[in-house]
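Hi C.,

You asked whether I'd gotten around to modeling the 80-residue construct. I have! Everything is below, sequence then structure, no commentary in between.
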Amino acid sequence: MTIGQMFEQSGILTLLGMGTVFGFLIILIISITLVGKIIHSLGLDKEEPAARKTKGSSTGANAAVTAAITAAVTEYRKTH
């Protein structure tokens, strides 16, 4: 096998691989778009009132986690 034939074969394999990945990405984009449209048309993208209340109550928990992380970082910086 000559160098020219090897370059030709590697070029074909490269184009085939890139075409496969490109095709998969196109299919992925189309499917995500379709699922988004289906969810929007069914009205499932609307947030329920119960979900809003849980977000408000988790703010205190997030503040506690943030305080714990801040204390841990401060302690680490003191010792190192």
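If it helps when you're writing up: The chain has a mean pLDDT of 88.

Thanks,
B.
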